[in-house]
Structure to design on (967 residues):
């Protein structure tokens, strides 16, 4: 029976991921799923209208779906209502406003309410317009926080208007057509300008059927439109269909669930004490061992789902895996989980699986919060070189991934040592060796990645190193890893110390990954960064608290990791297998 | 002696030095939220001592010190790291296969540190703007404005005297035997704008009393923080010759050179970016400024130029675009920007140390692989045994 547990675990994880990732458009008389597959030109890229609906809705409401009168509503339905039935859609509460001062500006005092309709927001009209004109005259880097808020709200209104007034996107039958429209400049981007176009006329038929509330006509028109796309450009039709499937399936979201299961299984496996001689390996086929292997099996499925979804994304985008912060967190998660799997493969004690679950979960949650609905956007000119994007960015992200993994192992060491009795002498040794090995890898990856970045900069504008915030961030990760390694080689830290330093490394890595973007220097100060700051601060404090556990005298630890004598007389630096001086 | 060397070679010194380097980099990054990147390079990384009046822990959270405190700058920390590293190798030097990796890594680190030092000392960055169909052989260094005084009395050639921005400090008096007058810097604005004719005049504006631009008005602006943007300086100068006051002159990047008559000679005076006359010229044949369809997101900039160098009998066409520079005469030409649809801006860099990081990267990367991989293999073998 126990032998079957891992197989059962893997099979149920697989069934789960297959069931949840089948496409689910909103159930309706209207075939919204098919409508979502219609390719349109929007923000410099041809994409399915499903993506446009989600991006636009996300931009104004910070969500990819909404609810009206407590009933959930999909982004595509919201888009159709907004375009064709403004009389009801203008009252949908979709524009998110959190800040009390902005609420005052639009003339509402409701502290509880977060979402407002375009109707409510623009009721006060002139006051907002006036503030917008003021904020706009100030250069973006010198705006006050209030002015930034006003600009963000105004952008939301403009986004809403560009959608309802049909100036945001143009339906196309082929990419050639999209290029032709694009050549003509931004003005051509209104459907009015393109009204003689075949694709636009057909699209209007669809909109009219929706406006008249005639589902069968709507479905027929959508089918006819898609048939035309298929006829003129089969490749575009399949890409758009694939992308809209990708949006509906939200594979990364469900992979998070699997990572949580992995973490729980691995953690539970430690509740059953090891009962064989060396105190490290759990006896084969014990309860703990079965759970541990189940965790590994589910981890395998989760990693496959993660990798597959990332591969699909890369295929759709046609660029290397990392082009923005969102994609980088997907990749950092991927890299850390991959390394953790290697650790589990070598050590087989559940630690690799548990940290894989932890890091996979956290990075995908971060990614989810960074996504704005369209993460496949056009890549700006200087980034548009696949050579450097696939070398420098990938290697640097592996450096981040491995630094975080070392930090996560450090957390397992300190929490496990102080609060549980699971950290035996043997476990302590193997865990600190894992941290050491991962830090070595992190050192290699972050250094090579950083230098490759310098070479890219030298190739692009003749400056190998400019002390730019992002470069400095990468340098800090390199220095931190160098510090950990030299502190160990110099005998200044041992098992406990290296774990605590690795946790401090988490702070450095998080800072260089996100912190530097919050400075708003030379780089864009993204709106979401203001939301992210409290999280970063919380993270830093939590890591400091965990790292300081390492300073707690061993007699307060629940685990016994060293005999009293060796702790009292720290002898010469222990030369473990991989240690080497200088 | 040996024991002294041992202590400065100690890893117990390496770790604090690495921490110090991290703090320097951190504060040098934070400082960029309020200072432009070149000032930060100068004040934090390319200097020996930082006289610090306070610490910005995070933008918006600043602690001020009662007095200015000297803090080691980039040269001191980098130099100490270099000494520590060299001493470590001097003490423990032993050429063996096991140590080849370590030696290569550290040799690479030394090259990187030196490369940064030499770049700071010798690299020159210039820009050249060319309109389609036009030819240009003059590059400008927009980071280094200077005051220029031109003696036009010789019919064969002009004599140019340039005073760099670093000497144009308010209150300073500039005298030079080649200058026909004394210059007292009344005001110097690192960044400024012209006050428009219809604009309400700000109360702080100074009025010049002499020169062709005496009626123009200038308002000071804060420094640009982004590297892509350029500061436009202006200065008010009090000129005098002996006891004779020649008036208060306004010079600015925004304004053309003015003529001034001193004795029987005529001079031109103005503020301009440092110019470099090149022995070659570039003609812009075609400039492509490509955007993603229906958007303002740049997809590609590309300049097709003809390079002419009569001295070397060179005449050829070249294509310059993002990540694809042209290299000629030790200089590298990068596609920088596009202020207008038919005008390209090329960034020209002359950095004799540019090759060092490349060698360093190979040394360190290779060294790490030589060092870590055999250890990993040994470790895996032992676990299997």
């Amino acid at each position: 029976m126990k032998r079957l547990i891992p197989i059962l675990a893997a099979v149920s994880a697989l069934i789960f991921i297959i069931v949840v990732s089948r496409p689910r458009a909103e159930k309706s008389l209207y075939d919204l799923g098919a409508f979502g597959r219609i390719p349109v030109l929007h923000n410099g890229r041809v994409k399915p209208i499903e993506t446009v609906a989600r991006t636009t809705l996300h931009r104004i409401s910070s969500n990819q779906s909404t609810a009206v009168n407590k009933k959930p509503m999909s982004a595509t339905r919201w888009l159709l209502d907004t375009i064709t039935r403004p009389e009801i859609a203008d009252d949908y509460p979709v524009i998110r406003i959190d800040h009390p001062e902005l609420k005052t500006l639009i003339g509402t005092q409701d502290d509880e309410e977060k979402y407002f309709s375009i109707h409510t927001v623009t009721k006060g009209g002139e006051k907002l317009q006036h503030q917008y004109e003021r904020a706009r005259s100030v250069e973006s880097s010198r705006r006050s926080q209030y002015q930034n808020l006003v600009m963000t709200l105004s952008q939301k209104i403009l986004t809403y208007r560009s959608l309802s007034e049909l100036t945001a996107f143009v339906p196309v039958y082929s990419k050639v057509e999209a290029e032709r429209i694009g050549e003509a400049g931004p003005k051509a981007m209104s459907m009015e300008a393109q009204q003689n176009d075949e694709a636009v006329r057909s699209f209007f038929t669809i909109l009219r059927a929706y406006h008249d509330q005639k589902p069968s006509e709507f479905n027929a028109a959508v089918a006819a439109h898609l048939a035309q796309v298929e006829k003129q450009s089969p490749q575009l039709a399949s890409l758009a269909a694939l992308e809209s499937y990708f949006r509906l399936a939200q594979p990364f979201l469900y992979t998070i669930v699997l990572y949580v299961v992995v973490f729980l299984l691995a953690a539970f496996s430690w509740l059953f004490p090891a009962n064989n001689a060396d105190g490290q390996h759990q006896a084969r086929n014990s309860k703990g061992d079965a759970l541990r292997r189940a965790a590994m099996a589910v981890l395998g499925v989760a990693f496959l789902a993660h990798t597959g979804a990332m591969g699909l994304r890369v295929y759709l985008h046609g660029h290397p895996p990392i082009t923005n912060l969102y994609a980088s967190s997907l990749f950092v998660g991927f890299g850390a989980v991959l390394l953790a799997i290697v650790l589990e493969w070598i050590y087989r004690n559940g630690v690799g699986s548990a940290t894989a679950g932890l890091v996979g979960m956290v990075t995908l949650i971060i990614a989810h919060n960074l996504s704005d609905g369209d993460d496949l956007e056009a890549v700006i000119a200087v980034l548009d070189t696949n050579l450097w994007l696939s070398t420098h960015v990938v290697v640097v992200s592996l450096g981040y991934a491995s630094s975080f993994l070392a930090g996560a192992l450090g957390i397992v060491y300190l929490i496990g040592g102080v609060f549980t009795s699971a950290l035996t002498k043997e476990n302590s040794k193997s865990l600190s060796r894992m941290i050491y090995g991962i830090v070595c890898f992190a050192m290699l990856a972050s250094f090579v990645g950083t230098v490759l970045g310098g070479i890219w900069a030298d190739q692009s504008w003749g400056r190998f190193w400019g002390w730019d915030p992002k470069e400095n961030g990468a340098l800090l990760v390199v220095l931190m890893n160098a510090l950990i390694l030299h502190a160990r080689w110099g005998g200044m830290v041992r098992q406990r110390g290296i774990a605590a330093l690795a946790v401090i490394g988490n702070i450095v890595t998080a800072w260089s990954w996100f912190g530097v973007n919050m400075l708003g220097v030379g780089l864009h100060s993204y709106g979401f960064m203001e939301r992210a700051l409290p999280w970063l601060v919380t993270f830093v404090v939590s890591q400091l608290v965990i790292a300081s556990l390492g300073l707690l005298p061993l007699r307060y630890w629940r685990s016994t990791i060293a005999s009293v004598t060796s702790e009292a007389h720290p002898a010469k630096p222990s030369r473990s297998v991989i240690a080497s001086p200088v | 002696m040996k024991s002294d060397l041992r202590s400065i070679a100690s890893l117990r010194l390496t770790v604090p030095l690495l921490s110090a380097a991290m703090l320097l980099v951190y504060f040098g990054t934070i400082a960029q939220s309020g200072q432009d990147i070149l000032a930060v390079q100068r004040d934090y990384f390319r200097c020996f001592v930082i006289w610090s009046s306070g610490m910005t822990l995070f933008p918006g959270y600043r602690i001020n010190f009662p007095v200015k405190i000297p803090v080691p700058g980039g040269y001191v920390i980098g130099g100490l790291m270099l000494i520590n590293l060299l001493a470590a190798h001097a003490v423990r030097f032993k050429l063996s296969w096991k140590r080849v990796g370590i030696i290569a890594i550290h040799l690479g680190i030394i090259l990187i540190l030196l490369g940064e030092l030499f770049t700071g000392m010798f690299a020159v960055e210039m820009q050249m703007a060319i309109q389609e169909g036009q030819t240009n052989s003059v590059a400008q260094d927009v980071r280094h404005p200077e005051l220029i005084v031109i003696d036009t009395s010789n019919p064969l050639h002009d004599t140019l005297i340039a005073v760099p921005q670093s000497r144009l400090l308010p209150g300073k008096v500039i005298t030079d035997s080649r200058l026909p007058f004394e210059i007292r810097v009344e005001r110097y604005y690192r960044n400024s704008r012209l006050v428009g004719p219809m604009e309400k005049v700000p109360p702080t504006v100074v009025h010049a009393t002499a020169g062709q631009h005496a009626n123009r008005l200038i308002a000071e602006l804060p420094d640009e923080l982004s590297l892509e943007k350029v500061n436009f300086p202006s200065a008010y100068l009090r000129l005098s010759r002996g006891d004779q006051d020649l008036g208060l002159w306004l010079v600015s990047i925004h304004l053309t050179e003015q003529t001034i008559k001193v004795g029987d000679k005529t001079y031109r005076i103005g503020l301009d970016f440092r110019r470099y006359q090149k022995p070659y010229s570039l003609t812009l044949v075609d400039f492509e400024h490509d955007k993603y369809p229906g958007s303002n997101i740049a997809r590609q900039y590309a300049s097709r130029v003809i390079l002419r160098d009569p001295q070397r009998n060179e005449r050829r066409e070249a294509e310059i675009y993002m990540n694809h520079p042209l290299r000629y005469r030790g200089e590298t030409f990068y596609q920088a920007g596009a202020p207008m649809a038919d005008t390209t801006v090329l960034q020209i860099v002359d950095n004799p140390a540019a090759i060092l990081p490349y060698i360093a990267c190979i040394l360190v990367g290779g060294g790490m692989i030589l060092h870590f991989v055999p250890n990993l293999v040994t470790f895996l073998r032992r676990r299997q045994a």
Helices of chain B lie at 2-8, 11-30, 37-45, 74-92, 97-122, 356-384.
